[in-house]
């Protein structure tokens, strides 16, 4: 259970006295309403007749379904808690990542999360702030499988934690709205923006575990289009636009980016060597 600050404890004690529930019951409901983003709560506590559900607007279900007096008291408590949470910046959802359907035979998974800023009601959990402190509070966070995301639209940064390492990317002009992992094709990570579906590897890496990463030679930002599928190693193979050493440099740069993906665990050794051989065959 999350630990309350002195202000949080004072609020819980006040609610307990005025609504006639124990401090433990009120704390349980406070967290339940917070998890419901201030508009609903799923709870399970003896003082609320066991398991039940509350939704803003008057809908409430209790185990003791005919106890209208208890329903009225629980509704009043939840309604007041929702108002308190609404005045706490950072506690309620300000954004979320929605995953897309997986390709290549992979299963569909979903990454939902809420932006949790500093609150005066709860003691900050050091493990909750896994991204670099200088990025501030994210607009949205998400978790999918063993990968965590934190998006900072104002700073144009995206933090990703995978395999115990924290990578920070420059999001350029992308307005990110969702993530998915292509589990059927080596675990590649893609995101959606106003340009469509884009591979995470197309973003410049800013830092790794707090250490600055030297940028690769800049590549042009993608132009808006209905759908953009950015591969880990974009190579222009049109004879009309690439010749000689220009195409060779593109291929070597693509192989270098593939090596980065393999180091991150996004590509397997087999996939790396297969793609590398394919690119080298074009020389």
SSE topology sketch:
Layout: H1 6-19, H2 23-35, E1 40-45, E2 50-55, E3 59-61, H3 68-86, E4 140-144, E5 147-152, E6 157-162, E7 165-170, E8 178-182, E9 188-193, E10 196-199, E11 205-208, E12 211-212, H4 244-264, H5 269-280
Antiparallel strand pairs: 1-2, 2-3, 4-5, 5-6, 6-7, 7-11, 8-9, 9-10, 11-12
Helix pairs in contact: 1-2, 2-3, 4-5
Written overview of the protein:
This protein is of the alpha+beta class and 283 residues long. It has 3 domains: 81 residues, no CATH class; 141 residues, no CATH class; 52 residues, no CATH class. It is 28% helix and 21% strand. It has 5 helices and 12 strands. The strands form 3 sheets. The protein has a 6-stranded antiparallel β-sheet with strand order 4-5-6-7-11-12, with no helix packed on it. A hairpin with a 2-residue loop joins strand 11 and strand 12. Helix 1 packs across helix 2, helix 2 crosses helix 3 and helix 4 runs antiparallel to helix 5. The longest helix is centred in the last third of the chain and has 21 residues. It is elongated, with a radius of gyration of 24 Å. 27% of the residues are buried. About 15% of the residues have low confidence.
**How many separate domains?**
3
Spatial separation of the terminal alpha carbons = 59 Å
Question: Structural class from helices and strands?
Answer: alpha+beta
How is the largest sheet built, in terms of strand order? Answer: 4-5-6-7-11-12
Largest beta sheet, briefly?
Answer: 6 strands, antiparallel
Order of secondary-structure elements: HHEEEHEEEEEEEEEHH
Note the total helix count: 5
E-strand count? 12
Helix content: 25-40%
- Oligomerization category of the chains in this entry: single chain
Spans of 5+ residues with little confidence (pLDDT < 50)? 98-118, 223-243
Described by the principal axes of the CA atoms, the overall outline is elongated
Mean model confidence by pLDDT: 75
Cα radius of gyration in angstroms? 24 Å
Q: What fraction strand?
A: 15-25%
């Amino acid at each position: 259970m999350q630990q309350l600050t002195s202000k949080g404890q004072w609020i819980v004690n006040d609610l307990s006295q005025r609504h006639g529930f124990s401090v433990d019951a009120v704390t349980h409901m406070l967290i339940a309403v917070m998890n419901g983003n201030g508009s609903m709560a799923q709870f399970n506590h003896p003082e609320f007749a066991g398991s039940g559900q509350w939704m803003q607007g008057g809908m409430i279900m209790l185990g003791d379904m005919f106890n209208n007096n208890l329903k009225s008291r629980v509704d009043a408590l939840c309604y007041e808690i929702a108002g308190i949470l609404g005045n706490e910046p950072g506690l309620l959802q300000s954004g979320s990542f929605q995953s897309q359907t997986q390709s290549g035979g992979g299963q569909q998974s979903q990454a939902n999360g809420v932006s949790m800023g500093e609150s005066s009601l709860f003691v900050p959990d050091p493990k909750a702030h896994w991204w670099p402190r200088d990025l501030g509070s994210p607009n949205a966070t998400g978790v999918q499988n063993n990968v965590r995301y934190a998006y900072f639209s104002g700073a144009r940064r995206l933090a990703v934690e995978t395999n115990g390492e924290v990578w920070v990317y420059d999001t350029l002009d992308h307005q990110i709205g969702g993530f998915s992992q292509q589990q059927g094709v080596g675990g590649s990570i893609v995101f959606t923006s106003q340009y469509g579906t884009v591979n995470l590897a197309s973003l410049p890496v800013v830092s790794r575990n707090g250490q600055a990463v030297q940028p690769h030679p800049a590549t042009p930002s993608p132009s808006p289009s209905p759908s953009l599928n950015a591969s880990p190693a974009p190579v222009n193979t049109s004879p009309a636009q690439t010749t000689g050493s220009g195409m060779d440099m593109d291929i070597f740069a693509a192989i270098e980016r593939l090596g980065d993906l393999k180091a991150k665990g996004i590509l397997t050794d087999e996939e790396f060597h297969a793609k590398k051989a394919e690119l080298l065959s074009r020389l």
